[in-house]
Each structure stands twice: as structure tokens, then as C-alpha cells.
Design goal:
321 residues; Serum Albumin, Chain A, Domain 1; three-stranded antiparallel β-sheet
């Protein structure tokens, strides 16, 4: 198996992400007196620049913070929610069976303004940095702002995403102006600058999440939505509540596993899978053997069956964890 990633070793701290420049932003925070939260926020803000297809200030997610001094963990749900105007019948399914059971007519649940949920990424990052970080919030924004202003070399990953989605990206003026040059999609190694976003980041560094919750950007999002069939409003954004939830915990061969619980499915089913796998001598099977692959396949079949049947938003259903 070949990988583009390189091994990294640190004696006093490690920052890992999907892009070297983003990890470097986190390291910069540690080198200037920041803690893990400062590093995480700087890293994710940098990812909004260098991997915009994966991370954005109008995105969402989950946070898992471990406090070594108290040996305790907190998890925060900042996943997107349905706008207040959302209705159960706003999308029309095309099938109840695999592989199209999540598809809807005209892919309206995936593409276009109606598919957008209420964002909480920036609100969460600002919250955890100002509550748990050591540095001024403004410091954590600097690397991202620098990458956007000065530009960065497009990775093969980003270039592939642009190429794969070029038809959709061309249909919106903003993405067309950013990701195309003379009507051609930008490719690996080309320099990508995003001056408009650098200006937004500069304002974020001064005012935090207010630019979305009560400022011009949230207002602009509402107008864009109303004009194009979306239903997210600035009131939705301002009223969004971050949720502190109980972490999911488990043990595997002497290691404690701590992760984010529902509505995230990841840690819950990782713990479930490891509980099943612990009963087997995996080392004796050998990596990549047919016995090993068969065991993983059967384990994942159980896990995903339970995920499909039981997992959901704990604000609306009882998830048996």
C-alpha cells in the first residue's frame, strides 16, 4: 500500500490533519504558547482555506477535548440542524431500497440551496477557543488568513475534487471565479489565492462568530437562500445551540476509547466493532489475510446494520448506547 503521507514524530506535541499547511498552523500555535485547543482551532481554520471542499466556517461537526490534568473528556455537538422552516416532505425519495434509499428527486437533498442546514462550525470553534484556549482568538486565525491572502499550491486531492465537480462549480459565480482560470479548472501545483475570504477571516479575527450570528455575512446568507429556494435564515444561525453531550467510552486490549456519542455515529460504532473484534486473535490471522478480511467484513455488517436501525439525533429518538 502506497501513501502520500509521511511519518511525523514530535517529542513535545503532535498536530495532525489532512493537509500539511493546516498541521503547520497548529504547530505554530503550540510554538507560541498555545495549547491543544488553540492548535486545533488554527488547524481547522486553515483547512477552510486549503481544503474548502471538506471544511468551512458554515459547516458543522463534533469536538472531543481531553483534559489531561483532570483525566476527563468533554464532547460538543455542533452538527448542522434543520432550519425552522424545514418540513418532513420537502424532499421526495426515489427509492426505499439500496443503493438509492438516500436519493431524492433532482438530488435536492444534496445539491443546491434547499440542501443546506443551519451551520455551527465557526460558532463552535470560537466558543472552544475562547473558553479553553490560551491565546487570543485573533492569533489562531492568522495562518488561515495568510494562506488565503498569499495563496497556496493546489494539492492533487483538491485538484481532483475541482475536476470531478467542475460542472456544478461552474454553475455558481463564486466557485467559478475561484476555481477556474480561462474557463479551465485549476490543477495540481497551481497557486490558489482567495482574497475575498482573507477579508472575511480578517473580520472574524476581530469579531469572532458575530459575523454570522448577527453580522453582514449571516444576513447575506439569508438573502442568498431566499433568492434561490433555500430556507436557512440568520435567525436560525443566531438561535443555534451548541450541545455538550456525554462522551462514548470503551476499552480495547487495555486501551481506553473516548469519543463523541450520538448524533455522531463514529465513536459509538467504533467501540461496538472493537468489542466484537477483541474476542479474536487478530494478530495470529495476519494483516490482509482472507480470515482477517472476512472477520472485518462480518463485524462491519453487524455494526452498520445496528447503525441503520438505531442511530439518530438523541434530541428526537432514544439511541440505546
Amino acid at each position: 500500500m502506497k501513501t502520500l503521507k509521511q511519518e511525523a514524530i514530535g517529542s513535545r506535541g503532535v498536530v495532525t490533519s489532512n493537509h500539511a499547511l493546516a498541521s503547520l498552523a497548529g504547530i505554530e500555535m503550540l510554538a507560541t504558547g498555545g495549547n491543544a485547543v488553540d492548535a486545533a482551532v488554527a488547524t481547522v481554520l486553515a483547512l477552510t482555506v486549503v481544503e474548502p471542499m471538506m471544511v468551512g466556517i458554515t459547516g458543522a461537526g463534533f469536538v472531543n477535548i481531553h483534559n489531561a490534568s483532570t483525566n476527563s473528556s468533554i464532547t460538543i455537538d455542533n452538527y448542522c440542524t434543520a432550519p425552522a422552516a424545514a418540513q418532513p416532505d420537502m424532499f421526495t425519495p426515489i427509492s426505499d431500497s439500496w443503493p438509492d434509499y438516500m436519493e431524492t428527486e433532482q438530488q435536492k437533498n444534496k445539491i443546491g440551496h434547499l440542501s443546506v442546514g443551519v451551520p455551527a462550525g465557526l460558532q463552535c470553534w470560537y466558543h472552544i477557543q475562547t473558553k479553553y484556549g490560551n491565546l487570543d482568538f485573533e492569533n489562531t486565525v492568522q495562518p488561515a488568513m495568510r494562506y488565503a491572502e498569499q495563496g497556496f499550491s493546489i494539492s492533487p486531492y483538491l485538484a481532483g475534487i475541482i475536476e470531478t465537480n467542475k460542472i456544478a462549480l461552474k454553475s455558481y459565480p463564486g466557485s467559478r471565479d475561484l476555481f477556474f482560470n480561462n474557463n479551465n479548472p485549476l490543477s495540481t501545483g497551481q497557486l490558489l489565492r482567495n482574497q475575498n475570504y482573507a477579508s472575511v477571516l480578517r473580520e472574524i479575527s476581530k469579531t469572532g462568530d458575530e459575523i454570522l450570528t448577527r453580522g453582514w455575512l449571516g444576513n447575506a446568507i439569508e438573502k442568498e437562500m431566499a433568492k434561490n429556494g433555500g430556507i436557512v435564515t440568520q435567525d436560525d444561525i443566531e438561535k443555534y445551540q451548541l450541545e455538550y453531550r456525554n462522551p462514548v467510552k470503551g476499552n480495547y486490549r487495555g486501551y481506553e476509547i473516548v469519543g463523541v456519542g450520538p448524533a455522531s455515529s463514529g465513536a459509538t460504532h467504533i467501540v461496538q466493532a472493537l468489542n466484537l473484534l477483541e474476542k479474536f486473535n487478530i494478530e495470529a490471522m495476519g494483516f490482509g489475510t482472507k480470515e482477517y478480511i472476512h472477520l472485518l467484513a462480518e463485524t462491519l455488517k453487524i455494526v452498520f446494520s445496528d447503525r441503520f436501525r438505531f442511530m439518530g439525533d438523541p434530541d428526537f429518538i432514544d439511541v440505546p448506547v
